[in-house]
Amino acid sequence: MMDLDHTDIEILRLLQTNAELTNKEISYKLHKSVATIHERIRRLKEQGYIRRVVAILDRKKVDKSLIAFSHVLLKDHSANTLSSFEKEVVKFPEVMECFQMTGTFDFILRIATTDMDAYHIFYRKLATLPNITTVQSFFVLSETKSDTAYPI
Amino acid sequence: MMDLDHTDIEILRLLQTNAELTNKEISYKLHKSVATIHERIRRLKEQGYIRRVVAILDRKKVDKSLIAFSHVLLKDHSANTLSSFEKEVVKFPEVMECFQMTGTFDFILRIATTDMDAYHIFYRKLATLPNITTVQSFFVLSETKSDTAYPI
DNA sequence: TGGAAAAACCGTAAAAATTCCGGTTTTTTG
DNA sequence: CAAAAAACCGGAATTTTTACGGTTTTTCCA
């Protein structure tokens, strides 16, 4: 599950924070040839260590100023209730992430909307899904840290 | 704040889900020349719509099987207490995200660790920061949806 | 322990993508 | 409606990626 050597780890560290680095730039930093770096990255993708490469946008610039975390509690935890909730919730474009959780509620959703009016519209749609007991909403005041890189 | 035309929006949509598309591939999809796409992307970066391009790793493959959301409540909300907490919490490599929140607690942290032992070690370090009242931990059982793309 | 097999590495050349440039068409604006 | 600005384009120059053949290093087991 982790047969990566030092060079692999360093490549992943670099690409996690900046995937626009060229193979040449990486080869300088890691004291390897361009061909070696290229082959390493090819394998890291093929083996699934790198799932995808994406552009991260400025959420305020694209008019998603309101981020909410919504805690959802379901009526019961039968396989049917769980999977039908999951099936429906992923359809909402506002839902960027959805995690099933341990603890006093069942799911955490990360919601991105333009403003509170848009969140309200979403909330009404969400809260009327079958088998939902409660939805608690918490809103982001400010981002202290916002990273997609895993600490490796 | 959003003087983007249809072509800009489509470029951002595409790059949010796959930043490895070549300018040529994008130019096919959007019926524009390679030069035009190139100039558009250059401007989207320069103007800050695209903050960065990153590789997204498979967290289990890089041995971060345990993801937690930790809710932190502070003793008070003086500028000093808030900013010194923020200053310290961002130093933890396990903390991928930190948001100041509205509601019944002050911060949400997203924590990535190898296992519960590693989380426990982190938890003890976190809980001993000054001015913390409570830390509540919730753990991810499964990922239903996991997206970095904003709905635009 | 020695030697074969496998893996990692490298330089170079070919292919492809990015970047730059000059000029044309379309849109905006006073 | 004419001038200015913006968007667009093809093609050339530059850079990067990708493929290839061969060398060095590491692994492993007889």
From TrEMBL, chains A, B:
HTH asnC-type domain span: 4-65
Cited InterPro entries: ArsR-like_HTH (IPR011991), AsnC-type_HTH_dom (IPR000485), Dimeric_a/b-barrel (IPR011008), Tscrpt_reg_AsnC-like (IPR019888), Tscrpt_reg_AsnC/Lrp_C (IPR019887), WH-like_DNA-bd_sf (IPR036388), WH_DNA-bd_sf (IPR036390)
Keywords: DNA-binding, Transcription, Transcription regulation
Highest taxon of source: Bacteria
A GO cellular-component term linked to this record: cytosol
GO BP terms in the entry: regulation of DNA-templated transcription; response to amino acid
Keyword Transcription applies: yes
Entry's Gene Ontology molecular function annotations: sequence-specific DNA binding
Family annotation (SUPFAM superfamilies): Dimeric alpha+beta barrel, Winged helix' DNA-binding domain
Protein name per its UniProtKB record: AsnC family transcriptional regulator
High-level lineage: Bacteria, Pseudomonadati, Bacteroidota, Chitinophagia, Chitinophagales
